[in-house]
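Researcher: We plan to redesign the surface later, but first we want a full-length starting point. Tokens attached.
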């Protein structure tokens, strides 16, 4: 068979780097012969290597980048395959590679991470007491997914999940949050900065501000909405140090959450005689998506110079201002469309009890783990959960 069109769904899913190189080399040669590839993927690095035209679709299946654009091809990291050049004809001609890039299906989804962050900061616990820049902590709670390319479009140099999440490349990866703690959190805690508090904003506050702009007559006698205080925006060294610590703690909380969720999913799968496969991935992600939509969330980070500065100084990799803004934009849309929907279609793989128990476990374990580690700051961090 020598078809003129190939339609592919996640062709590199579960492959190691050598196998991905072979797929890329084949596709480029196939297109160079004047044929067409239509493909869906979550991996922006694959899009870039293929020099493909990409249409970005968000987690609600909305087109988030309407224009179809080219990315320059990039060779594989090693010389394991010969890469053939690709010439793409002008859109809307069929020749070439067109990729539908899904930008919002990481597990768990950001609505779950945001909800867990809100629950943690609402508790009367050690973590909520120590986190002074809640704006930075909220932003940090989604940072590990930014450079992977799942959630934020237009990432120029993606970083593999195994690096951003300290995880082995396996079907259900489990981050080694304790290594991240020892490498990035513990050194910052030794200084224990005491900077000015800073709060995130919310979709409720944003709507109130917009209402006052559009309907000023309703608010003629109302008290003005207080914005952030001057010290919340200050770039004094102690404030930036506080923001960097709290952002890094937010990143750690994300890794704890992924560790717990992925471990429990893996155990659930083993208990029910299943194994990771494409059908499992689709059902699992659909269930996570519906569960995330049941959680009412309101918190959105403020785009401030203090946050930009802390993000640029993040120890694992610098996060430029452009990506901070894009990330806040994605978070804004997730919060705006996630008021909490108690009714949802039946879960296809997991259960209500599974989600309720695991969500609670994430919050409890993050709080307990933080309290235990700050009580013994010189002791190496041990895993908070037994891996499987």
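Model: Full-length starting sequence:
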């Amino acid at each position: 068979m020598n078809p003129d069109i190939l339609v592919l769904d996640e062709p590199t899913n579960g492959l190691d780097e050598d196998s991905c190189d072979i797929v890329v080399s084949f596709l480029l040669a196939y297109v160079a012969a004047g044929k067409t590839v239509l493909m869906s993927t979550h991996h922006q690095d694959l899009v870039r290597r293929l020099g493909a035209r990409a249409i970005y679709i968000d987690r609600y299946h909305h087109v988030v980048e309407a224009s179809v654009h080219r990315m320059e091809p990039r060779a594989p990291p090693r010389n394991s395959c010969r890469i053939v050049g690709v010439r793409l004809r002008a859109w809307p001609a069929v020749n070439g590679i067109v990729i539908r890039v899904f930008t919002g299906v990481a597990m768990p989804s950001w609505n779950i991470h945001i909800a867990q962050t809100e629950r943690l900061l609402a508790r009367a616990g050690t973590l909520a007491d120590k986190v002074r820049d809640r704006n930075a902590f909220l932003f940090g709670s989604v940072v590990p997914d930014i450079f992977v390319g799942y959630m934020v479009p237009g990432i120029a140099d993606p970083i593999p999940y195994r690096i951003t999440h300290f995880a082995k490349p396996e079907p259900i990866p489990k981050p080694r949050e304790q290594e991240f703690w020892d490498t990035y959190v513990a050194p910052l805690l030794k200084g224990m900065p005491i900077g000015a508090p800073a709060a995130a904003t919310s979709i409720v506050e944003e709507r109130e501000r917009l209402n006052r702009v559009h309907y000023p007559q309703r608010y003629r006698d109302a008290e003005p909405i207080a914005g952030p205080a001057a010290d919340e925006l200050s770039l004094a060294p102690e404030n930036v140090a506080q923001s960097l610590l709290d952002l890094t703690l937010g990143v750690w909380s994300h890794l704890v959450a992924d560790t717990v969720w992925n471990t429990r999913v893996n155990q659930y799968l083993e208990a029910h005689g299943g194994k990771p496969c494409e059908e499992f991935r689709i059902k699992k992600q659909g269930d996570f998506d519906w569960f995330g939509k049941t959680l009412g969330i309101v918190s959105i980070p403020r785009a401030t110079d203090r946050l930009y500065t802390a993000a640029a100084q993040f120890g694992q990799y610098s996060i430029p201002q452009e990506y901070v803004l894009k990330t806040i934009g994605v978070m804004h849309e997730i919060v705006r469309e996630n008021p909490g929907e108690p009714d949802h279609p039946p879960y296809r793989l997991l259960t209500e009890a599974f989600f309720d128990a695991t969500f609670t476990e994430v919050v409890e374990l993050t709080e307990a783990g933080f309290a235990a580690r700050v009580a013994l700051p010189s002791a190496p961090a041990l895993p908070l959960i037994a891996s499987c």
